Amino acid sequence: MATLVKGLGQATRPLLPVVQSWDRDARRWVRALRRSPVKVVFPSGEVVERKPSPGKQPRKGVFEAGRHEQRLKQPLPVPPSQTPSTWEESGLRYDKALPGDKRLSSVMTVVKSRPFREKQGKILLEGRRLIADALKAGAVPKVFFFSRLDYIKELPTDKLKGVSLIKVKFEDIKDWSDLVTPQGIMGIFAKPDHVKMTYPETQLRHSLPLLLICDNLRDPGNLGTILRSAAGAGCSKVLLTKGCVDAWEPKVLRAGMGAHFQVPIINNLDWETVPNYLPTDTRVYVADNCGLYAQAQTSNKASDHGWVCDRQLSKLHKYEEEVDLETGASKGWLPELEVQSYDLDWTEAPAAVVIGGETHGVSLESLQLAENTGGKRLVIPVVPGVDSLNSAMAASILLFEGKRQLRVRAEHWSRDRSSH
């Protein structure tokens, strides 16, 4: 019996362990449930992140996957060297004018008109250098017309955002250009405000207590040249009274060669408001070689030094004599202004120089302002028989003489201070 039982036991014992399929599948599900997935995706599409239980460190593979997901969520930092610096990277766009496009002609027709400039507050700048100077000084561009995309790419990209860029044919720009050799780019800018402008640091550092007042200057070329001299001499401000040509007229801009963006210019002033723009204790000096009053005030030998201009030019000063209708006698009624040579010291206080136009000369208002501030008439000697100097030349001589006197005065003051 024992032998039979033993045989049956041997017969029922399998030679190899048999694993049922249901047991194997159950173990797989158990292992799956023990894992801590980074995300659980439900059939509805909802995604739930699961954090590892406290005190339990996730495996390296899961931890690295989590870090990778976080990196994908955060925006990649752009190195400073890869910030948008080119025209293409900034995403700027331009329009190409098709045949029959009237935008250039319509703008040019009105922007060259002084009433439009004063009413709309817009000016026209032409040429790459002048436009670059304007942008650097903080002038606000509105529209650019250009014939080659390279001209726009030369400009700072941060200044072109929100500006209308229109590519036109070079022939169209040439038709409207005031330059002998058009440069293929024109810009419409908001009329600059001297208070909001950013003038060059070098210019501000060399600024002098010397101002220029333009009186009845009608020639655009002369005014542009005078503005260049004012910027070169270091004038702190330029005032233009009513009756002068517009400082933002295209010919003045061309002759100024960028001086408009180097020295503050205040345009179209009434004489009553001029003192408001002058520093305290400013003395006003009038550049005027002509006139009966100047002849009477100079010495007997003045004509030998060329201090007296042609008497025919004195007729331009109609205000210098007044005829009494009852007696028929003439009497002078000009302000009492002393006359002196331009090279004598006249820069003791902040000084303002009045330059008049060649046709109309200085106004009576300028002489009255000079008298009220304790100023004088400045005479530049010329050879007898020679007409008065060109306005731009006279302004240059006086401004640079004023600069020389201020520099000498500063050197003496510095030397006296060091000696004490």
Describe this structure in words.
This protein has two domains: 95-190, 60s Ribosomal Protein L30, Chain: A (2-Layer Sandwich); 201-414, SPOUT methyltransferase, trefoil knot domain (Alpha/beta knot). Strands 10-9-8-15-11-16-14 form a seven-stranded parallel sheet, sandwiched between helices. Strands 3-6-5-7-4 form a five-stranded mixed sheet, sandwiched between helices. A two-stranded antiparallel sheet has the order 1-2. Helix 10 (220-233) runs parallel beside helix 11 and helix 10 runs parallel beside helix 15 (391-419). Helix 10 (220-233) links the parallel strand 8 (208-215) and strand 9 (235-241). The chain has helices at 2-12, 21-34, 60-73, 103-111, 114-120, 128-137, 149-153, 170-176, 201-205, 220-233, 250-256, 292-297, 311-314, 364-372, 391-419; strands at residues 39-41, 47-49, 95-96, 122-126, 141-146, 164-167, 185-190, 208-215, 235-241, 265-269, 283-287, 321-323, 330-332, 339-341, 351-356, 377-379. The protein is α/β, with parallel strands linked by helices and 420 residues long. 27% of the residues are buried. It is built from 15 helices and 16 strands. Mean pLDDT is 77; it is low at 4-9, 75-84 and 291-321. Keywords: Methyltransferase, rRNA processing, Transferase. Residues 61-72 have a biased composition (Basic and acidic residues).
